[in-house]
Amino acid sequence: MYPMVGGTASEIAAGVEAAVSDGRLAPGTLLPPVREAAAQAGVSAGTAAAAYRLLRERGVVETAGRRGTRVRQRPATTFRDEIRIEVPPGVRDLSTGNPDPALLPPLHDALAAAARAHERRPAMYGTGDDAELLAPAGAKLRADGVPEGPLAITSGTLDGVERVLTAHLRPGDPIAVEDPGWTALLDLVTVLGLRPVPMRLDDEGPLPDELDRALRAGARAVVITARAQNPTGAAVTAARAAELRELLAAHPEVLLVEDDHGSGFVDLPLHPLAGVTSRWVLTRSTAKSLGPDLRLALVTGDPVTLGRLRGRQRLSAGWVSLLLQRAVAHLWRTGAVDTAAVAASYARRRDGLVEVLAGHGIRAHGRSGINVWVPVADETTAITRLLPRGWACAPGARNRIGTPPALRVTISSLRPEEVASFGADLAAALRPTRNGRYG
User: Fold this and answer.
1) Which pLDDT band, with edges at 50, 70 and 90, does 80 fall under?
2) Bridge partners, 256 (sequence order)
3) Which of 126, 276, 344, 389 is the least buried, fewest Cβ under 10 Å from its Cβ?
4) Burial of 402 by CB count in 10 Å (0-12 exposed, 13-18 middle, 19+ buried)?
């Protein structure tokens, strides 16, 4: 058993965290009870309890009542993004989650316009959000049925979500998340020491029974993707939104976080849930439609939540670069992205792949966005068999909590003329061998 050492709570916690990082404490290892840990370290029971509290807050351990305190199966120091494969030279990488560079707008004019505006009115300390960006953003939100509320600009969706969750929740609080879901969000939940309550979903979004179960289990926050759900491509329909709103209305104290990163490259309409609870936010990122390096997010919500977000932002980053804001505003103002054409391009590849796989007897999911989710019997075997055929896909383990194995295919890396051949190769990789075993 690992010996507890250190004279303060911070020293004891640091020792345990180091032991987890270098492998001396394996995932699932049971730590001694607080009084025993205190005796080992020669400190008071209060100091040992404080050390365990620090470890829980850092996402290193979890406490399950009488079953004691154990090292988490996925400590916060182990990020899901590290679950990856080495892509050999010559193999096409369909695992990245990136948009198609050919569909991103040229930036020369937008950056030049931002630079000219900077010369006339440079950003100084105390700079806020750009009115030329907020005005069209607010108009688009209202046109999509999102309740009117204050607006803020953050450095991407995750930045905004982190500030909101940190302001409203505390380590150990349960939070309902989609399963499978966005890798970065699942990592963020772990890092913040929150307890994920997984919600299964279908092509129309989270299943109502799953949301109901999570709410009854005491979830203090719910995160739902409106469109282009990563990794399944789910998009909330009007009927599903009505069911989810009804459930959320019975729990007005719950924080609702709605992610609409699909705005700008998805042609399906938004059916917002925003406003059904007292505390809510909806975020819209530009990363997929304009490019990851132009990553910012427009965030709206109730006044209290947006006030907390802005307060935390002022104490850290202060504001998002005004040059970046002005460049995005210029791209919007000049219609640099043909949203319908971009959505249609992705749809041809995505729908084409789903159709090809269906022809091979394989059901895949991809109602919107740039990913297709393909259930498999074994992820490692499927990936291993696909690599010699010249393709690499992402293991679904990066996105899953309790749902069955699958592969995530990013179709933005797939040329339209390659859809049929890739679908055939994937089907062959998933075909059982002669002895009847998968792989």
Assistant:
1) low
2) 222, 280
3) 126
4) exposed
Q: Is residue 389 classed as helix, strand or coil in its secondary structure?
A: helix
CB–CB of 208/244 below 8 Å? yes
Rg for the chain, CA atoms, rounded: 23
Mean pLDDT of all residues in 136-142: 95
Which of the four pLDDT bands, split at 50, 70 and 90, describes residue 79? low
- Omega prior to 180 cis, within 30 of 0: yes
Q: Using an 8 Å Cβ cutoff, are 52 and 31 in contact?
A: yes
pLDDT digits (tens, 9 = 90+) for 392-409: 999 999 999 999 999 999
- Report which of 273, 81, 261, 270 is spatially closest to residue 157, judged by C-alpha positions: 261
Among the residue ranges 76-90, 185-199, 245-259, 365-379, the one predicted with the least confidence is: 76-90
- Mean pLDDT for the stretch of residues 45-65: 82
Q: What is the pTM of this model?
A: 0.83
Output the pLDDT for position 74. 62
Task: Choose among 430, 404, 418: nearest CA to 93.
Answer: 418
Q: Tell me how far apart the alpha carbons of residues 212 and 202 are, in angstroms, rounded to a whole number.
A: 15
Span 193-201, mean pLDDT? Answer: 93
CA–CA separation, 212 and 228 (whole Å) = 23
For residues 37 and 3, give the distance between their C-alpha atoms in angstroms, rounded to a whole number.
8
In whole angstroms, give the CA distance from residue 50 to residue 70. 16
Kind plus residue range of the DSSP H or E element containing 176: strand 174-178
- Distance, first Cα to last Cα, the chain: 40
SS percent in the chain: helix, strand, coil, step 5: 45, 15, 40
Q: What is the DSSP letter of 61?
A: E
Pairing between β-strand 406-410 and β-strand 391-392 as defined by DSSP bridges: unpaired
pLDDT of residue 87: 82
Residues 117-143, mean pLDDT to the nearest whole number: 91
Tell me the C-alpha distance between 329 and 232, whole Å: 30
Kindly report the length of the chain: 439
DSSP state of 228: S
Which helix or strand (DSSP H or E) is residue 197 part of?
strand 195-199
DSSP state of 43: S
Q: Alpha-carbon distance 142 to 275, whole Å? A: 12
Contacts of 387 (CB under 8 A, 6+ apart): 85, 88, 91
* CA nearest to 62, candidates 38, 15, 29: 29
| Residue 413 to residues 38, 75, 283, 293, 385, Cα–Cα distance (Å) | 55, 32, 26, 18, 20
Classify burial at 353, counting beta carbons within 10 Å of its beta carbon; exposed 0-12, middle 13-18, buried 19 or more: buried
